[in-house]
Amino acid sequence: MVQRLFAMLAMVLVTMSTAIAQPKLEIVGGESYDWGKTRAPKEGHLEAEIKMKNVGNKALRLTEVRPGCGCTKTDPDKFDLKPGEVSTMKVKLNISPSQAGSITKNITVSWADLAGNDAYKAYKSTSNTPLPEGADTTIRSQYIWLKADIQRALMFQPSMYFSFQDLKVGQEQSAKVEITNNSDEMVVLSDWTTDGGLVINQTSRVSLKPKERIEIIAKVVPMAKGNYAGGVRFKTSHSDHTDVDLRAYGFVQESQSPVFQGTAVPAK
């Protein structure tokens, strides 16, 4: 009776130790990497080095590291991690010329128990290799968040282009872009040119004080239906925006589309 009791207790302890023993991935420094407020990089991207540590008590394998839209990564220097080991990879947060303000992207990291993943691979490759009882084949995933608050000398609202709505042949339409001097120095805007038949409300030299803003209103009278494209170019005295090109887009319809005209009633 006593021997059976000890045997049952031993089985419980083994089961408990098996359940407790598991790998666990931790992003060193937290699951978010935040550059904070930063100037727009001339290289077109921000860089960081991310470290991932196995804080569990079993070996693990990084099965996939998938960047979301707008960010890239290099392969980690280690895919198989023993308890306590660290894997390092470099990531980039891509910044387009028109992006400003808060940006958040993510990278998905997937990992699994090393022994369980090996067993699963053997099982998938041949039907003669059964999965061991109790093998941990679960794939776990988590996000690494990349954040930045991009500060540009000139801010363009609502975007860095003119969006024309409801363009019609022969009818004037307008769109606007607001420019704010977000720097701590005076910025001069000059040498205005346009294309695509655009006419703008600014043609002379303009000086913007820090935090001052100006509204650029563009007008056009389209002469043909279909896709419209034009633009406004100018120069500034700030090194981050020496040449600015604000594109303009829209779709031109006939001034009176037959679709909306009443159906003629035949004469009796």
Structure description:
The structure is a single chain. It is elongated and about 75 Å long. Strands 11, 12, 14, 16, 18 and 19 form a 6-stranded mixed beta sheet that branches. The chain folds into 2 domains: 23-151, Immunoglobulins (Immunoglobulin-like, Sandwich), CATH 2.60.40.10; 154-257, Sandwich (Immunoglobulin-like). The longest helix is centred in the N-terminal third of the chain and has 19 residues, at 2-20. It has helices at residues 2-20, 114-125; strands at residues 25-27, 32-39, 45-54, 60-67, 71-73, 80-81, 86-94, 101-113, 139-151, 154-157, 161-163, 167-168, 173-181, 187-195, 199-200, 206-208, 213-220, 226-236, 243-253. The chain is built from 2 helices and 19 strands. Residues 12-18 and 259-268 have low confidence and may be disordered. With 268 residues, the chain is mostly beta strands.
Number of extended strands: 19
Estimate the strand proportion: over 45%
Structural class: mainly beta
- The name of the CATH superfamily of the largest domain reads Immunoglobulins
Which word captures the global form? elongated
What count of domains describes the coordinates?
Answer: 2
User: What is the name of the CATH topology of the largest domain?
Assistant: Immunoglobulin-like
Mean pLDDT: 87
The helix fraction, in percent, is 10-25%
Number of helix segments? 2
> Would you state the CATH class of the largest domain?
Mainly Beta
Q: How is the main sheet built? A: 6 strands, mixed
What is the CATH architecture annotation of the largest domain? Sandwich
Q: Helix-strand pattern, N to C?
A: HEEEEEEEEHEEEEEEEEEEE
Low-confidence parts? 12-18, 259-268
Radius of gyration: 31 Å
